Every structure is written in C-alpha cells, then in structure tokens.
Amino acid sequence: MCKQGTMRLLLLLQNNLTGEIPASYANCSTLLRFGVNNNSLSGSVPAGIWGLPNVNIIDITSNRINGPITSDIKNAKFLGQLFAANNRLSGELPAEISEATE
C-alpha cells in the first residue's frame, strides 16, 4: 500500500470498518495523518503505527481498539495530536510519549 512512499493522509473515517488495523500500515513512513475514527475496528494498534516517524495526528477515536499505547510512540517525533477516546485501551501511558514531539 505504501511501497512508493508518497502517501501523506490515510483517512478511513465513519465507514463501519471491522476487523483489525492492518500491520502493513506501519510501513507508511510518510504519513502525516492517520485517521480511522468512528468505525468498529478491534484488536490492538500495530506497534509501528504508534511510531510513524512523520505523523502529526493519530485519530483512532470511537472504535473497539484494545491493548496499550506502546513505547514506540517515542519515534513519532512530530506527533502533535493523539485522539483515542471511546476505545478499550489498557495499561499506562508510556513515559516515552513525552519524547514524541520535537
């Protein structure tokens, strides 16, 4: 999906999508915005997505996503906004979240 390295936005909002977020999305290193909010996605967010190096917005609001926000988030150096309300996330926010923005 991201083999050419040119995708900047992945917005799959309000589509009644089900299943898990594909791990292959973590290969989209040029993404600036990752939005899958208001669907019925489940499972955990693949670790690489938390650490997309150029992403500035991650929005997973209003799904059925579980699991933790992983320490990979420290690699998201430009992350300015993280929206994750109305899910089933668990664990503590990793201390590395403070390293996410330059």
Order of helices and strands: EEEEHEEEE
**Largest sheet: number of strands, sense, barrel closure:** 4 strands, parallel
Number of domains: 1
With strands numbered from the N-terminus, the spatial order across the biggest sheet is: 1-3-5-7
Helix content: under 10%
Description:
Keywords: Glycoprotein, Leucine-rich repeat, Repeat. This is Receptor-like protein kinase 7. It comes from Quercus suber (Cork oak). One of its GO terms (molecular function) is kinase activity. InterPro entries: LRR_dom_sf, Plant_LRR-RLKs. This protein has 102 residues and is mainly beta. The chain has a single domain, classed as Ribonuclease Inhibitor (Leucine-rich repeat, LRR (right-handed beta-alpha superhelix)). It is built from 1 helix and 8 strands, in the order E-E-E-E-H-E-E-E-E. The chain has one helix spanning 47-50, and strands at residues 9-11, 18-19, 33-35, 40-44, 57-59, 64-67, 81-83, 88-89. The strands form 2 sheets. The chain has a 4-stranded parallel β-sheet, with no helix packed on it. A 4-stranded parallel β-sheet has the order 2-4-6-8, with no helix packed on it. The protein starts with 8 loop residues before the first strand and ends in a 13-residue tail after the last strand.
Compact description:
This protein has one helix at residues 47-50, and strands spanning 9-11, 18-19, 33-35, 40-44, 57-59, 64-67, 81-83, 88-89.
Task: Give keywords.
4-stranded parallel β-sheet; Leucine-rich repeat, LRR (right-handed beta-alpha superhelix); 102 residues; mainly beta; globular; 25% strand; 4% helix
